[in-house]
Amino acid sequence: MAYKNVLITGCSSGIGLALAVRLAKDELKRFKVIATMRDMAKKGPLEEKAGETLEKTLQIRPLDVTCEDSVRQCMAAIPDQRVDILVSNAGVGLIGPLECHSMATIQRVLDINFLGLVRLVQEVFPSMKQRRQGHIMVMSSILGQQGLLFNDVYCASKFAVEGFCESLALQALKFGVNISLLEPGPVVTEFEKKLYEEVASMDFSKVDDETRDIFQGFYMAYSKDVFSALGQTPEEVAEHAVQVIEASKPPFRCQTHSVYTPLTTLKHADPSGQLPLSAFHQLVFQHDRLFRASLSLLKMLQWRKRRDLGPLPRPPAPP
Prior knowledge:
Layout: E1 4-8, H1 14-24, E2 31-37, H2 44-50, E3 58-62, H3 68-76, E4 85-88, H4 103-131, E5 134-139, H5 152-174, E6 177-183, H6 190-200, H7 209-230, H8 234-246, E7 253-255, H9 261-269, H10 274-285, H11 288-309
Parallel strand pairs: 1-2, 1-4, 2-3, 4-5, 5-6, 6-7
Active site: 154 (proton acceptor)
Binding site for substrate: 141
GO cellular component, one term: cytosol
């Protein structure tokens, strides 16, 4: 059986690591994975998880999505420069009041999350069109569909990703190339940990007292509750990615958690945009007790689901 070359970015941890290992250990050996990361000093966890697949069905290579030369050098090292499946996964987060962020910080988020994708696609898309086959999977976010309080810049980067892919998909279909957007919600990874560490050193000197209190006193607790109740593991998201990769007709969009489907549907139900804005505003600022109670219920249901599907994890703390 012919194998497919799979290039994955952002594999030092989280979803990228989980997906790279999952594909490399495919029992039918259908994939040869080029797992990439910007900092090769962080390859240890991937090497450990890869085990016997290392240098067989999985290779680790350096790739910085913010550098065109790095992208080209990585591509040049691939036999015939053939990438059958591109998984654009590298990304960074940013939370907090807009006044806290420098333009350099904002540009960095856009450079990695959006322009990093563009650089990759520019390299792999022409050969995919020439071969009239290929699959580009992009790790987007539910926040590419729905804005969220104090996630302004991150949402902007993911909205850009969604618009770029939706436009490009029209051309891709003409050439037999599939584009898929994977849209997870909160995922419990180093990504989350880094966000909270950055908040600890955030400069609030330009932020008014009311906004600071909403962020520190409400949003941070809300965010941790959401991650606790709805957070998926990298392995769970990776399984959704595998299903999309294996599909005979890959979907354009795939949300990894069913709880978000009504939220995105609500957005498109009112062309004026007022309905979802009003609903979210009331839910967050006027009915926060109901919201927290709902999260506690979802947390319990999530725990029961995982208990039934796999080894028994620790039960959640009582609400």
